[in-house]
């Protein structure tokens, strides 16, 4: 399968600072990227869908000013958690898809964010 | 309304035995896909098997098979000859090809423990 690289795998940041998470498709052009959040022992909750060159579509209840998503190129999407608080501590995972809605999406390795 | 339901929070199985993980779904789309992923403690999402709504044959991938019952809207995962390395979280997911923009919606997950 195709390779999606997510970086960093783990990050610890201080409360009030911002942290950026990168998601790269290494061997295909990702027209669509998805960002998920996962709390321990729980399901993956979709946060937003981003299409290259356009604004991300956020799921209900997700603060778009807090979770900034940029999908400026066909191989890179970034999620920035702004003014992070301890309750933002979670596992964030991206997936990327090239082509139409019925094509497979591939997952990154995930980022474990801890806000102290 | 919950679109993907996994009713078994945890399951135990003896090594070398088969186990069935339940998944039911709800959609009004005619075209959709059903997926199963394995998530070990490292957090990565490992794709296991896919079933398209128009596929008449049940999908199989090695020790994994998907028991697709369209009328009942169920897509249970069967793992044959369980191994200790199968211990992980398992997620069922659905993609509606025409509604929802092709995003994956996940069930609550089932934690499988394989006993020696």
Short description:
The complex is a heterodimer of chains A (116) and B (116). Chain A has 116 residues and is an all-beta fold. Chain A has strands spanning 4-7, 10-13, 19-25, 32-38, 44-51, 57-58, 67-73, 76-81, 90-97, 105-107, 111-115.
Structure description:
- The complex is a heterodimer of chains A (116) and B (116).
- Chain A has 116 residues and is mainly beta.
- Chain A has strands spanning 4-7, 10-13, 19-25, 32-38, 44-51, 57-58, 67-73, 76-81, 90-97, 105-107, 111-115.
- Chain A contains no helices and 11 strands.
- The mean pLDDT of chain A is 92.
- In chain A, the strands form 2 sheets. In chain A, strands 2, 4, 5, 6, 9, 10 and 11 form a 7-stranded mixed beta sheet that branches. In chain A, strands 1-3-8-7 form a 4-stranded antiparallel beta sheet, with no helix packed on it.
- Chain A is 0% helix and 53% strand.
- By secondary structure, chain B is mainly β.
- In chain B, strands 2, 5, 6, 10, 11 and 12 form a 6-stranded mixed beta sheet that branches.
- In chain B, strand 10 (88-96) and strand 11 (104-106) form a beta hairpin.
- The radius of gyration of chain B is 14 Å and the shape is globular.
- The N and C termini of chain B lie far apart (39 Å).
- The relative contact order of chain B is 0.33.
- The model of chain B has no long low-confidence stretch (mean pLDDT 93).
- At the A-B interface, strand 4, strand 5, strand 9 and strand 10 of A face strand 10 and strand 11 of B.
């Amino acid at each position: 399968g195709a390779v999606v690289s997510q970086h960093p795998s783990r990050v610890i940041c201080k409360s009030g600072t911002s942290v950026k998470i990168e998601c790269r498709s290494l061997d295909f052009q990702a027209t669509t990227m998805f960002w998920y959040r996962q709390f321990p022992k729980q399901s993956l909750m979709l946060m937003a869908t981003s299409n290259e060159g356009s604004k991300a579509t956020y799921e209900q209840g997700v603060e778009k000013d807090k979770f900034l998503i940029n999908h400026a190129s066909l191989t890179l999407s970034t999620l920035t958690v702004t003014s992070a608080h301890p309750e933002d501590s979670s596992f964030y995972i991206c997936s990327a898809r090239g082509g139409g809605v019925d094509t497979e999406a591939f997952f990154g390795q995930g980022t474990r964010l801890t806000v102290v | 309304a919950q679109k993907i339901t996994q009713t078994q929070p945890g399951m135990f199985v003896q090594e070398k035995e088969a186990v069935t993980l339940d998944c039911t779904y709800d959609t009004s789309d005619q075209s959709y896909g059903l997926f199963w992923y394995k998530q070990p403690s490292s957090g990565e999402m490992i794709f296991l098997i896919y079933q398209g709504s128009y596929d008449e044959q049940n999908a199989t991938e090695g020790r994994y098979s998907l028991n697709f019952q369209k009328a009942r809207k169920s897509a249970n995962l069967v793992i044959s000859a369980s191994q200790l390395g199968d211990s992980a979280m398992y997620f069922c997911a659905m993609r509606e090809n025409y509604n929802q923009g092709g995003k994956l919606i996940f069930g609550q997950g089932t934690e499988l423990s394989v006993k020696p």
